[in-house]
Amino acid sequence: MKYMMFVCTDSEPDTDPTDVPDIDKWVAENDSRGRRLTGDQLAPSTAATTIRVRGGELLVSEGPFAETTEVIVGFDLLDCADLDEAIEVARAHPMARHGRLELRPFADLSA
């Protein structure tokens, strides 16, 4: 099952400095097991462009749609057996302690 894992900042990161996971090891392990299909960092939210169409008119705004201190800073596309496995993969990611991770399954459009 495929999951999009959004990597986000958090205004309340874990302050315990022990056993901080290494991102390079996390990537290598999950790539080698076929659980991480791709992933990357994103440019700062200040580089975002928001697109909307209202009443047939294109509205283009510089910057993110919402003003917030917690922003998406990256993503990983995971292929896991189920949600439990995806949670275990996310648990070992460094941003589980320094930020937050949102797991979202892809929609089943065949139904």
Provide the descriptors you would attach to this structure in a database record.
111 residues; alpha+beta; Alpha-Beta Plaits; four-stranded antiparallel sheet; two-stranded antiparallel ribbon; Dimeric_a/b-barrel; YCII-related domain-containing protein; YCII
Per-chain topology:
Blueprint lengths: L1 E8 L13 H10 L3 E6 L7 E6 L2 E6 L9 E8 L3 H9 L3 H4 E7 L6
Antiparallel strand pairs: 1-5, 1-6, 2-5, 3-4
Family: Belongs to the YciI family.
Protein name: YCII-related domain-containing protein
Number of distinct beta strands: 6
Give me the Rg, rounded.
16 Å
* β-sheet strand percentage: 35-45%
Question: Domains counted in the coordinates: how many?
Answer: 1
- Strand order in the sheet with the most strands: 2-5-1-6
Give the biggest beta sheet: 4 strands, antiparallel
> How many helices?
3
Structural class call reads alpha+beta
CATH architecture: 2-Layer Sandwich
Stated plainly, the CATH topology is called Alpha-Beta Plaits
Distance between the termini: 15 Å
Look at the structure and give the mean pLDDT.
91
Q: Considering DSSP H and I runs of 4 or more, what fraction of the residues is helical? A: 10-25%
**SSE order:** EHEEEEHHE
Question: What does this protein structure show overall?
Answer:
It is a single chain. This protein has 111 residues and is an alpha+beta fold. The protein has a single domain (2-105), classed as Alpha-Beta Plaits, CATH 3.30.70. It contains 3 helices and 6 strands. Strands 2-5-1-6 form a 4-stranded antiparallel sheet. The two termini are 15 Å apart. The model has no long low-confidence stretch (mean pLDDT 91). InterPro entries: Dimeric_a/b-barrel (IPR011008), YCII (IPR005545). This is YCII-related domain-containing protein.
